[in-house]
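re: that complex we talked abt at group meeting.

here r the seqs, copy pasted straight from the sheet so there may be weird spacing, ignore it
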Amino acid sequence: MQSAGEIETLIARVALGDREAFASLYDLVSPQLFGITLRVIKQRAAAEDAMQETFTKIWRNADRYQANGYSPMAWLVTIARNTAIDSLRARQKVQFSDFEMHDLPSPEPTAEQRVVAQSELGRITDCMDELQPRRREAIRLAYLDGESYAGISEQMDVPLNTIRTWLRRGLMSLRECMSR
Amino acid sequence: MSDFDDEDVFAAEYALRLLEGEAEQTADDKLRKDPVFAQRVAYWNDRLSRVADEVAPVAPPPALKTRITKQLFGPSEAVSLWNRLGLWRGLTFASLALCAVLLFDASQKAPVTPEGQGGEYLAEVISDDATVRVLVHYDPATQELGIVVSSGQPTSDRSLQLWGIGDNAAPVSIGVLDSGTTSKFILPNAFIDNPARVTLAVSDEPLGGSPTDQPTGAVVAVGQPVVF
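got the structure back, here u go
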């Protein structure tokens, strides 16, 4: 995982219109952002289009990064994820194949992946571990796969209202845990 | 459990993109107008982004980076010397900026005789910023066009292609230009009767020229032949 300082510096340079910094930033973070994008969109061509949109936003909005209090990678991830979800939902409006839209649920992270995640202020990962498994799964489906309440309900085969409750309670637990 | 309120959960749901329809619109609005709410949303996005740490990186295809940088920054440094007059397709003649044809250096060519008497034709096809200059010489006696790219070579993966455009007609390819040497072509029959009325244009194409019979690349220079 790249240092936050390095990414922050690149973003600051991109904000000044530094194309080389943009290229370096792309090289550094695009694999992670592409992974995240693909996880949501699940289709290569559309994911590549979303990546183009993501990096366009990064280029155009780098000067607004400092203003909103995100950690640098979180800012990039948020842009990528939101762009991916916008794309996914736009496509879902015209495509009816559930088969295409719902992949097999992805497994929980391995122990090794969790160690890596925890190595840097991974408070949320510890807190996620404290959640009841089904609530954790619901949150992961929402965050990583961009699933709607209806989609989560379908995937987990649980009524919609139950999912809403699980999610809200899960989020409240997370908040409490993270503020300890 | 009661340290925070429903608004925090609302912010979290919004960050998770779980809100739909009116609820989402309300939140969009709130995000813009309510800085405290905006901060809550930022908090959630920031913390939740660590959930993505477990996602394995996937190297994007190299072509994607090229696509992105091209779109954001325009053509690559070498090609950006070209003055792009805009994509050919869809432009009418009236909208193309016809540039002045410059006098050809008389010392380089034998004296020419006036038009209509079998005279030779000369044209310099030049882009607006003068970085691309293509000299065209036409000898009606042989129907031969001699063309020299005097400045503005294309990059190694691109070619310049010369086109002739008659009145109200689609461009006709004259040929793909060599770099650095004189290219020789035979003027297409469509233009033989009245070479002076032909508009010459140069476009930037993939290596080897347009894969179709029409320009696919941007027009980089336009000029009309003048007889001296």
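couple things i noticed - The longest helix of chain A spans residues 19-41. Chain A touches chain B through 59 residues (CB under 8 Å).
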